[in-house]
C-alpha cells in the first residue's frame, strides 16, 4: 500500500528536501509565493526546471502508468493543484500549506517576470481557425503587467509533436526566443512529454505545464468562479462546461481516485 508522509528527493538546486507523498506522488509543500520564489532563485543561478501541478486526474493517470509517474516524480517542482490532495495531506497530518493551481501560477510568475525583466513564451491553447487564443493570451498578459517581455506565442497544429518538420520548426523558435519561462498549455500528459523533449532547446528556462490556462486567459474558455476554486469544486464546473469531453473521465477515474486518496489518508492517520 502506498505510504503517505514525507520522502526525500532532490530539488532543482540538488539539495535534499522533504516531499509529501500522496497517491504515489511526492508533492513539494510550498505556497504559491514559495513556488514562485523557488523558480526565481533557480533562474538567478542559471538553472532551468520543470513544474508539474498534480490534481486528482493526474494522480489517477500516474497510478495507471509508471512512465507518467516517473515524469511527474522527476520534475523539479511538484505542487498540488487539486484540493483533494491538500485535504488528504491534512487528514494524514502531513499538511500541504495550500493549493497551488497552475492557472494561478501563470499570473504570479508573469507578475514576477515583469518586475525582473524576464522573458516568457506561451505554447499551446486551442487552435480554432482565425481565433488565436495564444496570441490573445500574450496580449492580455502584456496589458496586465507593463514591461512584461513576450518572447513567443505559439499555437502549433494537432500532431506537431509527431511531425519531424513541425517539431524542428518549434525547437528553432524556442532556441531563437531564449525564454526564461515557458507556459505549456497542451493538457496532461502531452504537455509533460513535450516539455521533456523541449527542455534541451532552452536548458536554463523553467517550463510550467498549465493545462487550459492559456485558453482561460484568452477568454476562450471560462474558469470556475472563485468560490468554486476555493471550495475544491472547480472540477465540477469544468465537467458541466464540457460534459461530452470530461464527464466520463471525471466520474469513472477521478471521483474514485479522490475517494481512494482520502481513504488512504484516514488509514495512515490511525
Helical coverage, percent range: 40-55%
- Integer count of domains: 1
Return the structural class.
Answer: alpha/beta
Dominant shape: globular
Strand content: 15-25%
What does this structure look like?
The protein has about 270 residues and is of the alpha/beta class. The protein has one domain. Helix content is about 50%, strand content about 15%. The protein contains 12 helices and 9 strands. It has helices spanning about 30-45, 55-65, 65-75, 85-90, 100-115, 135-145, 165-175, 190-200, 215-220, 225-230, 235-240, 245-270, and strands at about 5-10, 15-20, 25, 50, 75-80, 120-125, 150-155, 180-185, 205-210. The strands form 2 sheets. Strands 5-4-9-8-6-7 form a 6-stranded parallel sheet, with helices on both faces. Strands 1-2-3 form a 3-stranded antiparallel sheet, sandwiched between helices. Helix 2 (about 55-65) crosses helix 12 (about 245-270) and helix 4 packs parallel to helix 12. The longest helix has 27 residues, at about 245-270. The chain is globular. Residues about 1-10 have low confidence and may be disordered.
